[in-house]
Design brief:
Two copies of one chain form a homodimer. Helices cover 34% and strands 25% of the residues of chain A. Chain A has 188 residues and is of the alpha/beta class. Chain A has a single domain, classed as Maf protein (Alpha-Beta Complex), CATH 3.90.950.10. In chain A, strands 1, 2, 3, 4, 5, 6 and 7 form a seven-stranded mixed sheet that branches. Chain A starts with 5 loop residues before the first strand and ends with a helix.
């Protein structure tokens, strides 16, 4: 894929779109937003979820589609909330995670993202990215979305993702790593 | 559907199969167990999950299939863990729910089940059942599975589902209500 073709990013989440559009720009790509929730299979596998979503939608609309799935994995909770992070955030929220970790000292966690790109009637390609860190003691910051206010990435000087602006978060994030691999493969 | 035809119940959960086989017996139906996890779409809608699973598998194997999906909904947690109960049980478990509800006095909760039956190349039929109750202060009992040790059904004299044997649980349960409606419709 070369030149000026557009890529269509499906997501119901404005925060994700903003992050990804910024990354696309740095690769000289135009990202168009299909603002709707991607169709999801129930699976523990982020990459499988992203691949199926990209494939189904690209076949449906006849355009090149990129879909992403990501999750927040807390070691002390057996990987919870993992692939169900969006649902868990809507229900028990960041407070619920902090409550589950009250008096827990081992607070290792990571964010993972998988991204898949598919052209109509073709097979998807996919990439993933991870950022390790810890769960903060309390919620901090107003940027970002989801569990950003309670995640302190390694190398981030003790600040949560929600205390960083988009470009600083992109210099660390799981999503940025996954999308950079994709955009790199599409533009080389 | 009359007479002696078998129905195939897909589930990876032996506890569920045991409960449902007992209910089927009371309707004079033979339930055969397809011991594998049903294929699940990611949805907040139990009935949709059950219908799609029954339809897909019955078309695949050419036999009449029954599939069930159920969830545990805690009012004070915005309905969490809901349709993702199995995953939440595997990760944070009953202890996680008790931890989230520590010092919470309004402990209303319910179990919901949806069941769908589908014959090959046909449309599924589906039914649902609910049992209201409360979340106990601590885990009690060894019967059942999942969140049974922390759920006290209304009318159950303060005991949890896990303190009841299968036939007593079936006299209350969401699952029993949904399956009784289905089996009633299949045998009348």
């Amino acid at each position: 894929m070369k030149g000026d073709r557009s890529i269509y990013f499906v997501s119901g989440n404005r925060g994700k779109y903003n992050e990804v559009a910024r990354i696309a720009e740095t690769f000289g790509l135009r990202l168009k937003w299909i603002r709707r929730a991607k169709r999801e299979i129930q699976s523990d596998n982020l990459r499988e979820i992203a691949r199926r979503a990209a494939k189904d939608l690209s076949d449906e609309i006849g355009l090149p589609v990129v879909a992403e799935d990501s999750g927040f994995f807390v070691d002390a909770l057996g990987g919870f909330p993992g692939p169900y992070s969006a649902y868990v955030h809507r229900t028990i929220g960041t407070d619920g995670i902090l409550r589950l970790l009250r008096s827990v000292t081992l607070r290792d966690a990571c964010f993972k993202a998988a991204v898949a790109f598919c052209e109509p009637s073709s097979h998807p390609i996919s990439f993933s990215g991870t950022i390790e860190g810890t769960v903060s003691i309390q919620s901090k910051g107003n940027h970002g979305f989801g569990f950003d206010p309670i995640f302190v990435p390694n190398g981030g000087h003790g600040r949560t993702f929600a205390e960083m602006n988009t470009s600083e978060k992109n210099s660390f994030s799981h999503r940025s790593k996954a999308f950079s691999k994709l955009f790199n493969s599409l533009t080389k």
